[in-house]
Design a protein that fits this description.
Blueprint (H helix, E strand, L loop, with lengths): L22 E3 L20 E3 L20 E3 L20 E3 L20 E3 L20 E3 L20 E3 L20 E3 L19
Length: 205
Amino acid sequence: LSVGNNKLSTFPPGVEKLQKLRKLYINDNQLTEVPPGVCSLPNLEVLSVGNNKLSTFPPGVEKLQKLRELFINDNQLTEVPPGVCSLPNLEVLNVSNNKLSTFPPGVEKLQKLRELDINDNQLTEVPSGVCSLSNLEVLNVGNNKLSTFPPGVEKLQKLRELYIYDNQLTEVPSGVCSLPNLEVLSVGPNPIRRLPDDVTLLKRL
């Protein structure tokens, strides 16, 4: 069901009756709330509610056990729905351009995650479990308030793109130079004085 890019400010009741629904696109509208019945759709695989006027998310997202992609970017959320970290099949999570200052614990449980976009928020630290996501290919934490990066980035052996631009970092995480598949590394503007000596090892950059 795709009703994205309209001028919807409300959604009709009864969405929970669509028990076979696999994809729901209601992005780019003027919604102030996610239809509460959405979290009762057991077969939902893709949920896109980005670019609306959401300040909250209904409870129960952890019930969407088949969810693979979740887009809640470009809203006014101050927190990531806590149940997100209990979605074992999640591959793409985009919560960029909100008002997040914290991230719920347990991100390391998202072992199928390939893309994590948390740029353009107010985070002061990268979720510590991020470096345990062995299948991560794209990580965007740009435009936050980061002054440090958690250790262990070298464990992200599948990482192709790393965006840490526009923060308060004084150095590039040392483990970055041990990422054989890295193709994109975006670090500016930050108060970084020099790049690691081993940056020449990144042959795909």
